[in-house]
Fold:
Amino acid sequence: MNNPQSHRTVYSKLRSGALISFTARYSDLVIQLVVTAILSRLLSPADFGVVAVVTVIVAFFQIFSEAGLGPAIVQEANLTEDDIATIFNLTALLGILLGSLFFFSGSIIAAFYSNAVYERIARFLAFTLFFSTLSIVPQALLRKKQRFAMHGTLTIAASAISGAFSVFVAFRGASYFALVYRSILSSALLFLFCSIATRLPIKTVFKTATISRVASFSTYQFLFNFINYFSRNLDKLLVGRFLGAAPLGYYEKSYRLMMLPLQSFTFALSPILHPILAEIREDLPSMFQAYLRLSRLLALVGFPLSVYLAFCSKELILIIFGSQWLPSVPVFQILAFSVGFQMVLSSTGSIFQAAGRTDLLFMSGFLSAIVMVGGTLLGIVTHSLVILAWALVAAFGFNFFQGHYLLLRRALNSRQYPFYREMRGPLIAAAVLWIVLIPTNFFLVQHTISVFPSLLIKTAASFAGFMLFCMISGDLRLLLTLFR
Structure:
């Protein structure tokens, strides 16, 4: 089953879904940037660092609450109303159990970090954990039915309302609790909105057969989420414990800004990739061809963007967060070099899921965790955020290769060469931007240009160099095809 009609159907759905998802994601991104910019001027780096520690621990508990059930709902072809009600009842029980456990674990967190304020924050954020667990099923149903516009609209609404409230209470002197209230309100509103949109069936039913059906898929997904948590969050936990709240605030802000392109581009694609490609789960050649096109596009954006962000790191930090966040600049400048690798790699999870190979997804996550944890420990031992950032960039590069080996050779039964052939052009585009921005940056430093004009000049030079490369290489046609 490898026919042009199948390809056209998949590409058409991916394009229309991506357009909707991008629109929603970028709208939400604008809201988050505005709210973060305001809060960054009202709150201190230590305020952000204190909340970041507990938020990371909340994310750990969310691994157990999600238990791989969301992707399993999307992947499972035939789910009855009783099946859905059973899975929701399971998530409700998990939400109550884990929320209660987190509520009473605040004293342990406070003792570990030698700061009593963590206990109070943990008790509040237990409600975030509860509501986010409840929203797993209704959000998965929206993705399964490919109602991407509805899901995006509801996410934006929850983000806007909670963001406005957090700014209001920050002006009233709520300090770091402005961030806590934002988290609780956002999760509660998203659950409420999605439940209404999906007409979530509420029944007193619990079918063990339903749990058994989704267990084989969701178990490996859960194990991947579990191991991925440590590879993504151990750095923040250890920086907060051994280097302090303020360094964690600087590091967390750099890491979050580095993740924005991923959240706004590839994370917008991931929710639509799985439900669309799951429809052709038996047609691996078509899935491989779709991934080649997708990876080329992601690389064409990601690798040049890495160079741009590295050269514009100081301007972006000053404009978005303010001068008090200047110590974040060196860390962000280094982490920016990982954006290209991460943008391409982040889409592989959806392909593993659509191909039904969450076992390989777990294997890739396990290998990733080993190198990520090793890099984190190196940075902590040396007490250097710069060394930590370089170690993580090297780890992301290694994971790019091992992840694609498992995806292409093992999951899709395809050759790797066509994929790496698609990477040549984007890497050359990144080199072109590097050549353009070196003299541009030298000129701006020599003439002490202020922040806003400096960013505009670098942006214009980057855009001109990128478009010139695309016209010469023919990649401009790829970009135009995407927008058409």
